[in-house]
From TrEMBL:
<dbReference type="GO" id="GO:0000272">
    <property type="term" value="P:polysaccharide catabolic process"/>
</dbReference>
<dbReference type="InterPro" id="IPR011460">
    <property type="entry name" value="Lcl_C"/>
</dbReference>
<dbReference type="InterPro" id="IPR036439">
    <property type="entry name" value="Dockerin_dom_sf"/>
</dbReference>
<dbReference type="Pfam" id="PF07603">
    <property type="entry name" value="Lcl_C"/>
</dbReference>
<feature type="domain" description="Lcl C-terminal">
    <location>
        <begin position="29"/>
        <end position="185"/>
    </location>
</feature>
<protein>
    <recommendedName>
        <fullName>Lcl C-terminal domain-containing protein</fullName>
    </recommendedName>
</protein>
Amino acid sequence: MKFIIFLFHFLIVYTVEAELLTRAGGALIYDTERNLTWFSDANYAKTINYNPEMSFPGLMTKTTAAAWVDGLEYAGFDDWRLPYTIQPDLSCSTQGENGVSTSYNCSGSELGHMFYTLLGGVQFTPISVQHNTNYELFSNINEIYGYYWATPEVLATNRSWAFRFDMGYQNLEKKIGSSTVWPVRSGDPLLDQPPDGDANFDGVINAADIHIAMQIIFGLREPTAKEFMHLDIAPSQSGISQPDGSIDSGDLFLILRLGIGL
Ligand SMILES: [Ca+2]
Ligand SMILES: [Ca+2]
């Protein structure tokens, strides 16, 4: 009996369920199950009108996509990458030769995990049609222009892993085709870059940071994702920040205390 109680306790404590937590005021979404952080904007390249191949903004060949995401700096992080595709993946509907897993229901890859597990998508169906409430955390999910690029590349065939959000489909695509990029990184932004009140990232907290915080609070300035990461410092519990997705008087008070010792 004791063993059963122990087992029950073990299952309650250690069953890991995916939970999505907002970071940087909602610009980033942290997946507790995979320890991954996604852009909430699923087509950021389009949002900033990045159009390297002169087709549609946000669409890139695989080579361009890999270079773009490698050079990307956002919310204070420069370790953004393309989502990874694990192989073989027994959850996939098609198991090919040499352990190549493709087609529908692939939940092993990071994009498949996003589509099927995090967003509650179903095969053959656009994610905008069938999804759970997590869908509201994200914007600009591309369903029109084909795939999202993923890794790794398969050099022998000049193809790369990719995933479609209009039908939940995973496949190897020609690298010269145009697809979308959804940047991801490993780790929790809050642990990797705890908020410190340093709004202008110069290593000290002083009147300049207080000025920026006040501009944001009074609606004179829209905070960037990086500013949000630094300024959402309150509330705090036992001296540890518990950011609440808002920059307000509570944050200003802590920054004043750090900056001028109030
Ligand atoms: Ca500063
Ligand atoms: Ca706050």
